[in-house]
């Protein structure tokens, strides 16, 4: 998309988007806390408890399908109303979803909880379509992955503290006579709604640069003529399905006696470490994929890793002995970034391969050797969404928003694949259900290889045309 930007610094908009991504990540990760809470409260099977993710991420599919159909028949809505209004609409709808937890908790009905999650997911769908694309437009295309990784890093900061703070809110602060009740979700989600409304007010008053396409926003299915987008849609589907499936079952996985036999009050800290890894990796990815001189990137990545690790370990209520293993994965993450040489597709291939290896170790091990590798996966999930997203929409021109809606539609993977994995966990056990994420990362690896080959072919064509 060739865009015209009003002369306004992109720093303030980027900071505003970063705050939004943080809150967005925090509330999304609360699902991992809700699953064991509602499973116990309503005596659910693993499959039934995964309806939490089905309702939430299923809304992404429904919402983005509606968006795509509107853009197909009537033209791109974002081009008509603008990114700012789209983002505010998404926040308000998300706040309404949070408010619906009040009647869900009052009547203690699982179906109402699922309805609230569906509305919340619809709001986040609008944010996915508008905010991700908006961040990629706040500067040159070459550094789009870097900017998106930076905002996604703060999204991950939200997912890191959600298991700690959210777990405290639900499992400790709002217990009634020491017992879990539906009411323990009522006050936390009203607080979230209030914060979202406040954020919408702030964004309404912040001067954001406006983007207008110099090309006409055509109706039709033009975005699907790009192979990188078509294959990228499945990349997002499998990535979100793998990440959500792992996070959703981690607390139950750690409770298994042949793994660690941990209580929820302890396991939520390890869950925070899983999501904290994604935050660390995204900060490192923002540096690695930036336009900084190659000679300085390694130094900055090491310094950033030290700083962010201190924050993560400071937040998480684990001793150094319990969390020191994670340092090994951080070092491996930095090495993989260096080998990736700032190339999004090459880095994607490396990280997918490492995740496959870590999962296989977890599946065929017991005790801490089964737990530690799966916690390290968060680090290597870090850049996957932003890299797949930017590789998929690269070169789409006037079809960027339409392509973005298709990619957001693919977040359906977070609804369907955890449901499949939950069914497998019921039938063959949690540990062996992790073969589902193995399949997911295998596809992502193949997509990265496709993008590498595509870049090489395009480079060869440019070379021949110059001669």
Explained architecture:
This protein is an all-alpha fold. It has one domain: Growth Hormone, Chain: A. Helix content is 79%, strand content 1%. It has helices at residues 11-41, 46-49, 51-74, 77-81, 83-99, 101-107, 110-137, 144-173, 186-205, 227-255, 264-288, 294-315, 320-323, 326-340, 344-363, 368-381, 384-393, 400-409, 413-428, 430-433, 435-466; strands at 3-5, 211-213. The chain has a two-stranded antiparallel ribbon with strand order 1-2. Helix 1 (11-41) packs across helix 10 (227-255), helix 14 runs antiparallel to helix 15 and helix 15 packs antiparallel against helix 16 (368-381). The longest helix has 32 residues, at 435-466. Residues 1-8 have low confidence and may be disordered. One of its GO terms (cellular component) is plasma membrane. It comes from Pedobacter nutrimenti.
Summarize it:
It holds the Pfam family MFS_1. Helix content is 79%, strand content 1%. With 467 residues, the protein is mainly α.
Strand content: under 5%
Shape: globular
- What do we call the CATH homologous superfamily? MFS general substrate transporter like domains
Strand order of the largest sheet: 1-2
Taking pLDDT < 50 over at least 5 consecutive residues as the criterion, the unreliable ranges are: 1-8
Overall mean pLDDT = 85
SSE order: EHHHHHHHHHEHHHHHHHHHHHH
Number of contiguous helices: 21
Biggest pleated sheet: 2 strands, antiparallel
From the N-terminal CA to the C-terminal CA, the straight-line distance is: 28 Å
- Number-wise, the strands total 2
Helix coverage percent of residues? over 70%
């Amino acid at each position: 998309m060739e865009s015209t930007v009003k002369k306004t610094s992109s720093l303030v908009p980027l900071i505003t988007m970063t705050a939004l991504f943080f809150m967005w990540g925090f509330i999304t990760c609360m699902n991992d806390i809700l699953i064991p809470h509602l499973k116990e409260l309503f005596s659910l099977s693993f499959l039934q408890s995964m309806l939490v993710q089905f309702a939430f991420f299923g809304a992404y599919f429904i919402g983005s399908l509606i968006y795509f159909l509107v853009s197909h028949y009537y033209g791109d809505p974002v081009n008509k109303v603008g990114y700012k209004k789209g983002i505010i609409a998404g926040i308000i709808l998300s706040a309404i979803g949070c408010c619906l937890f009040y009647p869900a908790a009052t009547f203690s009905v699982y179906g109402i909880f699922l309805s609230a999650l569906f509305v919340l997911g619809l709001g986040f769908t609008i944010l996915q379509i508008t905010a991700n694309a908006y961040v990629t437009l706040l500067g040159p295309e070459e550094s789009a992955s870097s900017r998106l990784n930076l905002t996604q890093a703060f999204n991950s900061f939200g997912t890191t503290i959600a298991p700690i703070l959210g777990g405290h809110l639900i499992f400790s602060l709002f217990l009634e006579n020491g017992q879990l009740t539906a009411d323990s979700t009522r006050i936390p989600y009203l607080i979230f709604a209030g914060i979202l409304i406040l954020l919408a007010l702030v964004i309404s008053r912040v001067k954001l640069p406006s983007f207008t396409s110099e090309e006409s926003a055509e109706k039709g299915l033009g975005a699907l003529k790009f192979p990188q987008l078509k294959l990228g849609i499945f990349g997002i589907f499998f990535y979100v399905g793998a990440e959500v499936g792992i996070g959703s079952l981690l607390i139950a996985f750690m409770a298994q006696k042949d793994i660690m036999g941990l209580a929820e009050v302890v396991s939520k800290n390890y869950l925070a470490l899983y999501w904290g890894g994604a935050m660390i990796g995204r900060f490192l990815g923002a540096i690695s994929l930036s336009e900084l001189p190659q000679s300085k990137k390694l130094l900055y990545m090491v310094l950033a890793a030290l700083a962010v690790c201190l924050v993560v370990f400071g937040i998480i209520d684990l001793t150094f002995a319990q969390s020191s293993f994670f340092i090994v994965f951080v070092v491996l993450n930095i090495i993989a970034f260096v080998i990736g040489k700032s190339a999004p597709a090459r880095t994607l291939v490396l990280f997918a391969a490492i995740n496959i290896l870590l999962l296989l170790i977890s599946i065929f091990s017991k005790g801490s050797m089964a737990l530690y590798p799966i916690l390290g996966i968060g680090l290597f999930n870090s850049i996957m969404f932003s890299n797949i997203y930017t590789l998929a929409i690269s070169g789409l021109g006037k079809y960027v928003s339409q392509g973005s809606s298709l990619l957001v539609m693919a977040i359906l993977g977070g609804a369907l694949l955890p449901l499949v994995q939950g069914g497998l966990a019921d039938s063959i056990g949690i540990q062996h259900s992790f073969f589902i994420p193995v399949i997911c990362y295998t596809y992502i690896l193949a997509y990265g290889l496709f993008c590498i080959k595509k870049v090489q072919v395009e480079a060869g064509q440019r070379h021949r045309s110059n001669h």
